[in-house]
Amino acid sequence: MKLTFVWWNTSLSRPADPNKSTTLAQSIAFDLLDLICHDIRPDAICLGEISTEDIARLEDIWVARGYGLIDGIRPVGRTSFDTCVLFRTDTLVALDNKDLVAQKGQRHFKVAQRFDFGVCDNETIIHLFVSHWPSRIHTSEDHPYRDFLGIRLRDAVKETRFDEHQQYVIILGDFNDEPFDAPLSNHLMATRDRALAARKSHLLYNPFWRLLGCSNPYRQASQVMSSHSGSCYYRGGESARWKTFDQIIFSSSFLGKTSWHLCEDLVQILDVPFFTDIVRRAKTSFDHLPVIGVIEKA
What we know:
Blueprint (H helix, E strand, L loop, with lengths): L1 E8 L13 H17 L4 E5 L3 H11 L4 E5 L2 E3 L2 E3 L2 E5 L3 E13 L2 E13 L5 E8 L11 H15 L3 H4 L2 E7 L7 H6 L2 E2 L2 H6 L4 E2 L26 E2 L8 E2 L2 E6 L8 E3 L5 E2 L3 H9 L9 E7 L1
Parallel strand pairs: 1-2, 9-10, 11-12
Antiparallel strand pairs: 1-18, 2-6, 3-6, 4-5, 7-8, 8-9, 10-15, 12-15, 13-14, 16-18, 17-18
């Protein structure tokens, strides 16, 4: 039995301009989701920068395809959570969800939203944490607020007691930080060292360390150029236009400790040529590619 999880920051409803997705943008986004559904049939699709209008349209289409929908849009201080989760009702059962908000001074921070799912094997519960952290435009790369978010997300994950009882934890989202940045590597403790994570239950494993560079290696005779070298594209980048901000992170319970295993060879940044080209041209609001993670029960 395999379960596939997708995260995508859709860019349909940006925090500074909510409920403003155009008909063209919606059409492009829904075409991409149709392709993902047809080719991959994910068990859970977590979407960011979504509006109430987008959710209504999603519900009309996807419920008929056998998916349930959890609306995650809720106000938080001057901002709001802007997510939703589509999940296959034949493989997953929604058990509970809650918003994880931290306050520092007068500012409220969207740490994550926790969604608990039961699996149709009747013996597995998966704790899914969905995060969309502030843009670096408003909260710079080295701002202490970013460390604060990593610390608070770690606290929230610890509440599952994943390190003591081999709970199944998956953390995904747009962190606006890369795998090597301190909020994820140091404070959340999401390591690139798979062997160490397998031995030490308190560590999380981040397979997206593998996806920091160009998708295809360069050779003189090769005619294949890399279509991307990250998940988020910024045309104005001086040293790099691509950043790996979108990631899926796993607890060590998926690394040989239980009957569920990470399928690391299937973890990827999704490269659909028509959409990747749209992102690279930067003539629309789209700037993120979807990311995928897969687990399998032995």
